[in-house]
Amino acid sequence: MIELGKIQTLTIAKKASNGIYLNSCDGLEEERILLPNNQVPESFEIGGELSVFVYKDSEDRPIATTTVPYLTLGEIALLEVAQVSNIGAFLNWGLAKDLFLPFREQTKKIQPQEKVLVALYIDKSQRLCATMNVYHYLDCHSPYKKDDYVSGTIYETSDNFGTFVAVDNKYSALIPKTEVLQELSIGDTIEARVSSIREDGKLNLSLRKKAYLQMDDDSELIFSALQKKGFFPLHDKSAPEDIKKAFGLSKNAFKRAIGRLLKEEKIILLKDGIALKK
Questions:
Q1: pLDDT at 19
Q2: Distance separating alpha carbons of residues 118 and 169, to the nearest angstrom
Q3: Sheet of 267-270, strands arranged across
């Protein structure tokens, strides 16, 4: 059986003026598919085999190519937007005919030359299309362990859960909302630490280092800000929202950093905030 959207090995059935016709080893004659002349290798034999990718041409007919696309059925890849039209977008996926990304499968407004993370699927009309809703295409069995550092692409944000990340553009991960202390957008590439691994194999991520290492960075951040401003009306009783707005830190991280600076006698704690020690 010839399968749309997949790389497969087919048998050379016959030569024609417009190319050669291929078939699966046990297929029927009416299932034959064309490999156009510009894709035909210099030497071939009837009955021989070729590895090809099957998609549909501009007239919606199944056709074969020896060119390997940037993604196949069920896979995920970061593709460049070639064009945006009134029916959707078209992506460069390495073939002559661009890949269609319908509006309903877009999770944000996209622009030409932007790169978007997508999966390849077959729609109800039996056409190959792209979707930015990649959650169900991600692998839950990554090779990473706790405290490993990873990189990935943000593909969804949620006020309830946090920020969803495709690690290596392949593995399922989440930055819990309690760890999201800065503005993150769909399409951003991030570096993060694996904070834990869930029972289902999905990764929980943190944008911060382990506490004892992160404390050095946080202390330096606050100390540098105080050197410029001299005083901040923040202390251990301040609202978490105020601390996050000023330094992008959680309240616990702020308290640890302040404790470090007090111990090093770099700052003083006033009734209404913190200031540099003179």
A1: 92
A2: 9
A3: 231-232, 273-276, 267-270
Neighbours of 229 (CB within 10 A): 11
Judged against a pLDDT cut of 60, whether residue 210 lies above it is answered with no
Q: Which two tokens stand for residue 49?
A: 């085999």
Rounded average pLDDT over 269-278: 84
CA distance 151 to 21: 43
174 band by pLDDT with thresholds 50, 70 and 90: very high
Average pLDDT over the chain reads 88
> Rounded distance, CA 137 to CA 166, Å?
10
Hey, what are 239's tokens? 């609202």
Residue 215 is predicted with a pLDDT of 65
Class of domain 211-276: mainly alpha
pTM over 0.85: no
- Residues 51 and 38: their CA atoms lie apart, in Å, by 15
Q: What is the pLDDT of residue 208?
A: 75
Which has more confidence, 86 or 25?
86
Q: Is 143 exposed, middle or buried (0-12, 13-18, 19+ CB in 10 A)?
A: exposed
Nearest to 162 by CA among 134, 203, 191: 203
Q: Which CATH number fits domain 76-135: 2.40.50.140, 2.60.200.30, 3.30.110.30, 3.40.50.2000?
A: 2.40.50.140
> What residues does each domain of the chain span?
7-65, 76-135, 138-206, 211-276
Burial label, 171 (beta-carbon count in 10 A; 0-12, 13-18, 19+): buried
Please give the CATH superfamily to which domain 7-65 belongs: Nucleic acid-binding proteins (2.40.50.140)
> Span 138-206: which CATH code?
2.40.50.140
